[in-house]
Amino acid sequence: MSQPSSTRDPLEGVSSLFYERWSPRAFSPAELDDATLARLIDAARWSPSCFNAQPWRFYTANASSNPKAFADCVNLLLDGNQSWAKDASVIGFLVGKKHFEHNGKPNPSYALDCGAAWMSMTLQARQEGLYTHGMAGIKHGEIAEHFGIDPEQHEVLMGFAIGKIGDASQLDEGLQEKEFPSPRKPVDDIWLQR
C-alpha cells in the first residue's frame, strides 16, 4: 500500500520526535508496566496551563495489570474503535476540569491545556518506543457514569490507546488502507504572518 504524496518532510532542525509521531491502529498485545505508564502521565503533568490550573485528569486501564478494567474501557469506545483498540496495552480517557480551583470561575482554556498534556504524554510515549492513538469515537456519557465524573464540573474530552505498534495485516481491510502516517499541510498553509 502506498503512502499518499504530501508534505511529510520537516523543516531542517525539527526534532524527529514530532514528525515520526503518528497514530497507528495496529497494536501488538504487549505488557506495559506501571512504571512506564507513570512516566507517560508524569510527562503530561509538566505541561503548561492557564493559571497553572493543570485541569487534566487521565483515567487509564492497563490490560496486563487489570484485564477486567481494560475490557470495561474497551466497551466504552464506539464499535469502530473497539475492533482495533482491544489489542493496545492501555485504554484511557482524558477529562478536563471546567472551572478554576482557586476561584471557582469557568476556565476558558481547559480543553486547550488538556490538549497540551495529551501531546506531552504522546511525545514521552514515542521516547519509550510506544505509540498512542487518540479517539473521538467514545461513549462520553457512559464514560462519565462509569468513572463517577460530574459533567457539570468536568468534560470527557477524548479516549486514547497506548501500546507497541503491531502488524497492519491484523486489521480489517478498510483500516489497513489507512495504516500509515497522515500527510501534513505545508507550513505556509498554517502560518499567517504579517
TrEMBL record:
Keyword Transmembrane helix: no
Protein name in UniProt: Nitroreductase family protein
Feature: compositional bias, Basic and acidic residues: 175-188
PANTHER family cross-referenced by the UniProt entry: NAD(P)H NITROREDUCTASE YDGI-RELATED, NADH DEHYDROGENASE_NAD(P)H NITROREDUCTASE XCC3605-RELATED
Matching InterPro entries: Nitroreductase (IPR029479)
Pfam families per the UniProt record, alphabetical: Nitroreductase (PF00881)
Region named Disordered: 173-194
The UniProt record lists the keyword Oxidoreductase: yes
Organism for this UniProt entry: Zhongshania aquimaris
Keywords for this protein: Oxidoreductase
Domain Nitroreductase, first and last residues per copy: 20-164
Highest taxon, organism lineage: Bacteria
Protein family (similarity comment): Belongs to the nitroreductase family.
